[in-house]
Amino acid sequence: MKHALVGAGEYLPQMESVDLELLNRLGKTAKVVCIPAGAGTEGPNRITYWSNLGVNHFTKLGVDVKAVEVIDTATAEDPNLADQIAEANFVYFSGGKPSYLFETLNGTKAWSAVEQVLEKGGLVAGCSAGAMIQGAKIMGMPSLSDGFGLLPNSVVLPHFDEYPGFISRASRLISGTSIITYGIDGMTALFRDGDKLEVIGTGGVTIITQNGRERYTQGDTVPFEA
Asked: pLDDT digit string (tens) for 170-212?
């Protein structure tokens, strides 16, 4: 399985080197779809903003790209939109509200299409909320909720360098559990290929377990626990 968790900065010029590396790790000619579902409650102007930003970003990187505007449960069940996702080999979820993003996709044709992309050797990337839903659990208040579990036994904290309060909040929620916290800085991706995890980008990834914490930076291999 290939997937990437991005801390912050989707589609910005500063992320070009990270996304070029992810495209390289795909290992085939990319066919990208950008999905703005995390911003589905923010109105049509924001949906258009994220869609255009993603298309312009990946067009500049020289690859085939389109926006697939899955933004609510109805569009997530649209077979035509699901087919467009399934035809891609690189799916990118931009940010927004993680709980809304998970609930919008869970059990739908759109998410089944994402799973098909993964099964065919494609790559799924997500930034901020798009990264959080890939964990086994999603951090919220007052409790953890379910994620898709692409990264097993995990909770993912994006924007980690921006909000140090995440550390104490996460520690309280996972206290007494075996869940691993992955704190991902902006302009940084944690890339998984099978049982290998690697940091790509200018920031770092902080791993928090019951035994303490470790920080990893560009090129470091991060321990993987299935």
From this structure: 667 676 678 999 999 999 999 999 999 999 999 999 998 888 8
With beta carbons less than 8 A apart as the criterion, state whether 157 and 139 touch. yes
Name residue 181's beta-bridge partners: 155, 208
Nearest to 144 by CA among 152, 132, 131: 132
DSSP H helical segments within 61-184, as ranges? 73-76, 79-86, 98-105, 109-119, 129-132, 165-174
Domain ranges across the chain: 2-222
CB 187 within 8 A of CB 21: no
Nearest to 126 by CA among 29, 14, 33, 24: 33
CA torsion, ordered 191, 51, 111, 22, to nearest 10 deg: -20
pLDDT band at residue 153 using 50, 70 and 90 as cut-offs: very high
DSSP 3-state assignment of 127?
Answer: strand
Per-residue tokens: 157:
């904290």
pLDDT at 168: 65
Architecture of the structural domain at 2-222: 3-Layer(aba) Sandwich (3.40)
Peptide bond into 142 cis (omega under 30): yes
Residue 9 CA to residue 119 CA, distance in Å, equals 27
Q: Six-digit token pair at 167?
A: 């550390």
CB 139 within 8 A of CB 158: no
